[in-house]
Write a structure and sequence with these properties.
The chain is of the alpha/beta class. The chain folds into two domains: 11-105 and 184-271, Alpha/Beta hydrolase fold, catalytic domain (Rossmann fold); 108-179, no CATH class. Helices cover 42% and strands 8% of the residues. It is built from nine helices and four strands, in the order ααβαβααααβαβα. A four-stranded parallel sheet has the order 1-2-3-4, with helices on both faces. α3 links the parallel β1 (74-78) and β2. α4 (108-124) runs antiparallel to α5 (128-142) and α5 (128-142) packs antiparallel against α6 (148-158). The longest helix is centred in the N-terminal third of the chain and has 19 residues, at 48-66. The radius of gyration is 20 Å and the shape is globular.
């Protein structure tokens, strides 16, 4: 079962992967996040708790409609979807396993800040830490951790700096507080005993490079010895193969990505 991620994509975003797993013989279920596709609601204004409730209900719905017990169901997520996996496993302990792909080992806010830094480090140069401090305040304001007055004061103090135009500052009159940025998966990883597959790309620009290590440490704290960590060399955040290709106009999945998942799931299924 594929858990929804960030952004406004509906289930068509995971359609190809769902078909591939179905062709391998797995019953695969993916669904529209609230406010996308045929689903009502608004994912932008929804809290993380509300989105997680949607995911929990989707898992239980899938189980009840198919008659497949939770103990025979595994859940997979990528990026923000991966960050939600340990929470769901804690709430539905009967689930079989979890697969986390490109999962941040920090809050979503810190992951966004890491992405901003990777995109701007070269052009800003030696002043990157100074600029990063202001960008952090912007994200803290959006997350409800900093007042507008304090942000505007910080912006006013830095607006003459040469790097200022590289800092992303939204229209504050239209910005809505989004506490989803404060969500951190690590405390939930510290509690789960389920089999877990962790996949991260070596060329992921979004999540911090040590995220897989942070998750591994959290699972060790949970005394979970039933996990596997795979770092795919040359893979991006979306598991695309970064590098030379004979047809550079289309991105290609890393050749080991789906194979890694299939082999691991088959191993876990045999154990159970």
């Amino acid at each position: 079962m594929i858990i929804t991620s960030s952004g406004n994509a509906d289930r068509s975003a995971s359609r190809a992967e769902s078909i591939l797993f179905a062709e391998k013989g797995y019953i695969t279920f993916h669904y529209d996040k609230r406010g996308t596709g045929n689903s009502d609601g608004d994912w932008r204004s929804a809290t993380m708790e509300e989105l997680l409730s949607d995911d929990l209900n989707a898992v239980k719905y899938f189980s009840s409609r198919t008659g497949i017990p939770l103990s025979n169901i595994g859940i997979k997520g990528s990026s923000q979807g991966a960050a939600k996996i340990p929470y769901i496993l804690n709430k539905l302990e009967e689930l079989n396993y979890g697969i986390v792909v490109s999962c941040p080992g920090v809050t979503l806010l810190e992951s966004d800040l890491n992405y901003w830094e990777n995109r701007n480090a070269e052009v800003i140069g030696n002043n990157i830490e100074e600029a990063k401090a202001l960008q952090l305040k912007v994200y803290q304001y959006i997350a409800g951790e900093l007042s507008r007055a304090d942000l505007e004061k910080a912006v006013s103090a830095e607006k003459s700096k040469p790097w200022f135009t590289n800092v992303w500052i939204p229209n504050l009159d239209e910005t809505k507080i989004d506490k989803k940025l404060l969500f951190n998966p690590i405390p939930y990883f510290e509690k789960i005993k389920h089999p877990i597959l962790i996949i991260q790309g070596s060329l992921d620009e979004i999540i911090p490079g040590n995220s897989y290590k942070q998750i591994s440490r959290a699972l060790a704290k949970a005394e979970n010895n039933n996990y596997k960590m795979v770092l795919l060399e040359g893979a991006s955040h979306s598991m695309y193969n970064v590098g030379s290709t004979d047809f550079p106009y289309w991105s290609k999945l890393h050749p080991d990505y789906l194979k890694t998942i299939e082999n691991w799931v088959n191993t876990v299924s045999k154990k159970n």
